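hi! just following up on the protien thing from before. the input was this:
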Amino acid sequence: MKHTKIKELLTGSNLLQEIVAKGWVRSFRNNQFIALNDGSTINNIQCVLELDAFPDEMVKRITTGAAICVKGTLIESQGKGQKYEIQVSQLEILGDSDPEKFPMQPKKHSLQFLRDNAHLRIRTNAFGAIMRVRSTLAFAVHKYFQENGFFYVNTPIITGSDAEGAGEMFQITSLPLDGSAPRNEDGSINYKEDFFGKQTNLTVSGQLEGETYAMGLGAIYTFGPTFRAENSNTSRHLAEFWMIEPEVAFLDLDGNMDLAEDFIKSVIKYTLEKCEDDIKFLEQRLIEEEKSKPQAERSEMNLIEKLNFVLENNFKRVSYTEAIDILKASKPNKNKKFQYIIEEWGADLQSEHERYLVEKHFKCPVILFDYPAKIKAFYMRLNEDDKTVRAMDILFPGIGEIVGGSQREERYEVLVEKMRTLDIPEEEMWWYLDTRRFGTCVHSGFGLGFERLVLFVTGMTNIRDVIPFPRTPQSAEF
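and the predicted 3d structure came back as:
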């Protein structure tokens, strides 16, 4: 039987018409009022049963979590709390839900309890809202790039290169793990016998492959899963997450910063407009959560104010050198309140430093640029001072770094020299070096961790709560 989504029913366009609705019971009271939700909106629709109109055995099966189908007339509600409701004439139980066993009962659950039940947490208001926002943000990403002349490129998930030089990668192999894998004379594993004929891993970034396509298509973006075998059990890290990575030919660092700022503002604006009810709900959830915190730890702005603040203010552009001077002179640094004290130029900034710059000093999103070459990746363009590179990071309140990017090193000789210094084998990266040998040009790009963007827009504080099934150390359930 064809049914109408609850989101559409709540517009009132089907008023006084006979309709069919399907969904899951959120609550059932007085044996008469069903709160029904089908996932299309955070709002439930009330379905009203006439007392004694349905068999007791059927009524007993209307429990939280049960899937039902109702047929009836959409009318204006006489009661408070909703504008429209369904006067039910026919009812069918599609799937029972044992109230003694269904974990998502209508009460407050801890976020950890919900993570332990990640397969069912989508039935709650909070996670329905988060995942609708995530879906809308993902669409906004594609919309922005497609409307601005970018081409979507699918870079490999299995790769033989380590774009970050981090070494924290998940290895792919078809060789046996019981010690019987083929060996070289020196006892090391002979990967020439492996499936791909060489050592391969899950990708940490699609950037290097993306660069090669930007050199023919002009402007490309990737948006796909990436993996880090980093044993980091924090609220900011996942072993599997999604990355957005545009690469643009003939674009320098200033243009890259312009692109990143415009992109972020565009996707946030679109999502604010399309997910108004969900974001208002998440804002209220955040307000309630913060009531338990000391005043000093509460946010100065509510969620929607924070999102509008990003839209309405230019991002402050600050060199790394200037940022170090600010941090060295800051009270937390002088009073040794930072966990990592800033003592000299060249220090790798930590989350506490990034958040200080954004939240305490500038009080707006910040773009840091021209970092020391020693703390950045080999592919970033060396500046004329021979000690800094054309890198940029965008720092957000509550998040720290949300974007990392750079103008890429387009000069063949300089790139080769940097690779030699870092012991990156030229023979393994021959294909990447070819882009500098044949028609090289200035080009730039950045990477944005999608989950960190979802964190910011939803106001959540743990990255495990903004991806359907989080992958973290010692955890690969579901």
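The chain has a mean pLDDT of 94.
Residues 125-147 form the longest helix (23 residues).
cheers
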